[in-house]
Amino acid sequence: MTPAHPPIAITGIGLVTPAGIGREATWERVCSGIPTAARDPALTGLPVDLACRVPDFEPARHLPGVTVRHLDRYSQFALLAAREAVADAGLDPATWDGDRTAVVIGSAAGGVATLEHQHSRLLELGPALVSPLTMPMFLPNMAAGYLAIDLNAHGPVVHTSTACASGATAIAAAADLLRTGACDVVVSGGADAMITPLCAAAFHRLGALSRRTDDPASASRPFDADRDGFVLAEGAGVLVLEREADARRRAAAPYALLVGHGASSDAHHLVRPDRSGAGITRALLTALADADVRSEEVDHVNAHGTGTPLNDITEARVLARVLGQRGAVTSTKGVTGHLMGAAGAVEAALTALTLSHQLIPPTANLHRLQPGIAVDIVARHARSTRLRFAVSTSLGFGGHNAALVLRAA
Questions:
Q1: How far is CA 373 from CA 116, 309, 324, 383, in A?
Q2: In contact, 200 and 154? CB cutoff 8 Å
C-alpha cells in the first residue's frame, strides 16, 4: 500500500493535564483509569461545582515570574507542554532553523479567565485599574504568538478555533504545512483553561455539564447508560511534527506517524450533533481516504466521547457503521474530563502513546454500557494488543468534526 502523502512523524509530546504535569505522569494516570474530577473551590456556590484541574500547578515553579505575569493560564499550559515536547523531540530552538519552524495552536476560548477577572476590576474599581496586559493575555492567538517568541519560530504561526475540535484542527493544519513544504518542523497542539465561574455557569445553563456533584469522581462517564454530561477540564497537549524522512535523517524515533486527516461540518445546530451522524461519518471517511487506509484496518479509536447523552450515542453509531467491531474504542475523558479546545490535541498525543506502547487505556466510569452501542469499548483495565492504525475523533460546538489517522511507527 502506497500512502497518499508522505507520513508525518510525531517526534515529541508534551502534556499538562488533570492526569498530571508531563507526558509520563499523564499517561500513567490515564492507563490507571482513575478519574480526576473533584469539587473545585473556584466554583463554590454554583449549581455544578466540580471540575478536572491540573494538579499542583504553581506557575512560578515551572516558569519565570515575568513570564507568569504576562501569560494567561491557558498560555502557561501551552508553553510548558511545548517546552516538554521540543526537548522530548531532541531539538534545540537555539540551534534549529527558526525560519523553517512553525507553530499552530488551537484554543476554544483563549484567556477567558483573564477577561473575567479584568471585567470584574472594571466594574468594581474603574477603567484606570484594568491591566494594560488584558488584551495580550486574553486574545486566543497569544499562546501561539508567545510560543513563537520562546521557541525562536519565525515560520507560519497560526491559531485555530473550532471549539472542542480546535486541537485536532491545529494538528491537521500543521500536517498540511509540512506536506506543502512551508516548513520543516511544526510545534502544534491545543490549550484551554475554562474552569471559571462564568464558563461553568454557562455550560450548566446549556445543560452540558454533569450534575453528579454528590460523587464528582464518577461524574465523567463516557458511553455509560447513566451519563448526564461532561466535566469541565483544563490543560494543554503539544506535539512536535516533522516529515518522517527528516526525522529518520536525524535518527529521531517517532512515537507514531500521522498519515491522514479529515474535517467536516454538521451544518445542523449550534450545539447539538446531527443524530444521523452524517458529518462525523464524512470526516472519518475523508481521513481514512487521505491516509489510504481501509476501515477494516483500524485497530483502535480514541473517541471524542464526552459523556453527554447525544454525543456518545451518535458517535458510537457512526463508529459501528464505519468500522464495525474491528476497532477497540476508548474515551480518555473518563479520567481527564473535557479539556475543551485542548482535548483533540491531548487525545491525539494519547493515541500516539497508545500505538507506541501497544496499550489501550480504559474508559473510566463505564459501569453499564448504553443500550444500542455496538462497538468494542475498552473498560475497567488497559488492554494490551497489537495495534497498527488508530483514529482520534474530535467534535465541536457549531458542528465541527475532525478525525486524525495515526500509524504505529
A1: 40, 12, 11, 20
A2: no
Residue 304 CA to residue 291 CA, distance in Å, equals: 20
Q: Which residues contact 132 (CB under 8 A, 6 or more apart)?
A: none
Q: Cβ distance 29 to 16 under 8 Å?
A: no
Convert the pLDDT of each residue in 14-66 to its tens digit. 999 999 999 999 999 999 999 999 999 999 999 999 999 999 999 989 888 87
- The residue behind cell 508531563 is 22
pLDDT in tens, 76-117: 999 999 999 999 999 999 999 999 999 999 999 999 999 999
Write down the pLDDT at residue 4.
Answer: 64
Neighbours of 64 (CB within 10 A): 10
Q: What is the DSSP string of 212-248?
A: -TTSGGGS--TTBTT---B-BBEEEEEEEEEEHHHHH
Q: Which positions are annotated as active-site residues? A: 164, 304, 338
Question: What tens digit of pLDDT does each residue of 130-145 get?
Answer: 999 999 999 999 999 9
Residue type, 53: R
Contacts of 298 (CB under 8 A, 6+ apart): 288, 323, 326, 327, 389, 390, 391, 405
Query: Structure pTM?
Result: 0.97
Q: How many angstroms separate the Cα of 161 from the Cα of each of 82, 171, 185?
A: 18, 12, 21
